């Protein structure tokens, strides 16, 4: 008897199937939505994507709705196989249920190749830059001569509205209407979501994701490199691809996207400085984080080198952006509430940085990111939040604390001009919470940070008395509500 291929909710693209006839299993398990508060738009996207995939596959697909995955499998009376699940819990479950587990898909580097690289290379912490150089050679990416890139008109950062044409809109259909009705009912029955509902903003099918990818490569990629670190109150998307949920749902194959971006470079559509950061994000960072998640045993959870144990305050956990006066934090937290997404610089420098400065629990923060972001996944958030952003796992990967003050945020954004605080003020009514918070962070962790050249220099520059006062001012604010 041939096996039925179980497509998990992050395996919904064509590259997770081999032949056109194999029967398919799709499962909607309520337990997923009850474990911890999930953003309403994320819940909508996951259910919509599962149901759209079932509709595409027609009679081939068996869609089971159940309370738990185990209950769902109990209703299937034929052998089931699954591509390597994307979480440790998922893998343990698949083993315990006796499923046939196929190698992972959706990544260019195999676990064996990564382990061989890491074992051979390793003399200290693993570095993403070293891995990325190796991966480019290994997969033959960005080698050879470029195409000629025509001059593009220049615009000042963030000025004059959106810096790139908006992604094509998503058109909701009957499946989305059913999902919305069902989630409304679940909420009435007590399932708790965070964030605001809204029109579906992210692709739920391969066709939608592919259309977004093609539009990005043609119209947004040329400006991607230039704006990747910028934060702007008037333009939340800038020239980012906003395709992370499509990769993490498995709709898009990263290899396909890398090829499309490389072709844009070769054909003169975009410069190397625009294309290379996009490819580095996929071939470097994304692959590196996935591989680290499986390579390191034990995993990142529990790592807490800075001994940060403060719980997340309710206003942050509940995305209460209206309670926040700090312009940057209100904008980014509001973006998460309204779109279940923020770009990389906002995640690191505004959200993660605020938590790091105040000693919030890295594990709690990783769970928050996982539930609130439309692209949140265990392997992504544990490595990025616990391993990197919160500097909790020093020694196994090469990172540094993403702690910066308000002046740094001011350099990269247009937030501070309309903020009630001032980025260069440490004490008093208009003291920037990020600038005082940075001093407090340095002071609290001075013994642990002595080995970091940048932060050691920052410590040397500071007057001790001022640091102490800033610490006290900051400590007073801890637990006292949003800034
Ligand atoms: Fe953020 Fe401080 Fe700038 Fe206000 S002054 S926007 S709190 S960095």
How large a portion of the residues is in β-strands, by DSSP E? 5-15%
Tertiary shape: globular
Q: Helical proportion?
A: 40-55%
Query: What's the end-to-end separation, in Å?
Result: 62 Å
Radius of gyration: 23 Å
Our count of domains comes out at 3
Supply the number of helical segments: 22
List the uncertain runs. Answer: 150-160
Element pattern in H and E: EEHEHEHEHEHHHEHHHHHHHHHHHHHHH
Q: Would you tell me the overall average pLDDT?
A: 86
Query: Which assembly state applies to the chains in this document?
Result: single chain
Give the beta-strand count.
Answer: 7
Structural class: mainly alpha
Strand order of the largest sheet: 4-2-1-5-6
Which CATH first-tier class of the largest domain would you pick? Mainly Alpha
Biggest pleated sheet: 5 strands, parallel
CATH topology of the largest domain: Serine Threonine Protein Phosphatase 5, Tetratricopeptide repeat
Bound molecules: iron/sulfur cluster
CATH architecture of the largest domain: Alpha Horseshoe
């Amino acid at each position: 008897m041939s096996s039925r291929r179980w497509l998990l909710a992050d395996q919904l693209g064509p590259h997770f199937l081999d032949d056109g006839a194999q029967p398919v299993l799709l499962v909607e398990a309520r337990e997923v939505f009850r474990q911890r508060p999930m953003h309403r738009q994320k819940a909508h996207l996951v259910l919509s994507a599962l149901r759209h995939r079932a509709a595409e596959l027609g009679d081939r697909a068996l869609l089971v709705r159940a309370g738990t995955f185990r209950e769902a499998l109990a209703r299937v009376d034929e052998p089931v196989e699954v591509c390597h699940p994307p979480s440790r819990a998922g893998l343990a479950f698949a083993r315990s249920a006796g499923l046939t587990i196929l190698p992972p898909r959706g990544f260019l580097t195999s676990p064996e190749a990564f382990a061989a690289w890491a074992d051979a290379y390793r003399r200290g912490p693993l570095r993403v830059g070293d891995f990325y150089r190796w991966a480019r050679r290994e997969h033959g990416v960005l080698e050879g001569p470029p195409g000629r890139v025509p001059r593009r008109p220049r615009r000042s950062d963030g000025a004059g509205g959106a810096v790139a044409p908006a992604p094509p809109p998503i058109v909701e259909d009957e499946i989305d209407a059913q999902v919305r009705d069902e989630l409304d009912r679940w909420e009435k029955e007590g399932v708790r979501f965070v964030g605001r509902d809204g029109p579906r903003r992210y692709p739920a099918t391969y066709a939608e994701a592919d259309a977004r990818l093609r539009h990005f490569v043609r119209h947004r990629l040329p400006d991607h490199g230039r704006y990747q670190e910028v934060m702007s109150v008037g333009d939340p998307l800038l020239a980012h691809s906003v395709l992370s949920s499509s990769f993490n749902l498995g709709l898009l194959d990263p290899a396909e996207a890398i090829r499309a971006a490389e072709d844009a470079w070769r054909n003169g559509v975009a410069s190397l400085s625009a294309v290379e950061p996009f490819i580095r994000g996929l071939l470097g960072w994304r692959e590196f984080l996935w591989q680290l998640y499986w390579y390191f045993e034990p995993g990142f959870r529990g790592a807490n080198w800075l001994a940060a144990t403060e719980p997340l305050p309710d206003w942050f956990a509940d995305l209460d952006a209206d309670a926040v006066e700090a312009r940057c934090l209100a904008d980014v937290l509001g973006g998460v509430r309204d779109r279940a997404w923020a770009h990389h610089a906002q995640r690191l420098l505004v959200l993660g940085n605020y938590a790091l400065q105040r000693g919030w629990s890295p594990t709690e923060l990783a769970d928050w990111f996982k539930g609130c972001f439309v692209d949140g996944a265990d392997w992504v958030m544990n490595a990025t939040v616990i391993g990197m952003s919160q500097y909790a796992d020093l020694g196994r990967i090469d990172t540094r604390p993403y702690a910066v003050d308000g002046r740094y945020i001011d350099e990269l954004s247009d937030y501070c001009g309309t903020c009630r605080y001032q980025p260069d003020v440490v004490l008093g009514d208009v003291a920037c919470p990020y600038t005082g918070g940075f001093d407090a962070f340095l002071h609290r962790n001075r013994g642990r940070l002595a080995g970091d050249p940048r932060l050691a220099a920052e410590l040397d520059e500071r007057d001790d008395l001022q640091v102490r006062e800033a610490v006290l001012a900051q400590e007073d604010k801890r637990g006292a509500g949003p800034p």
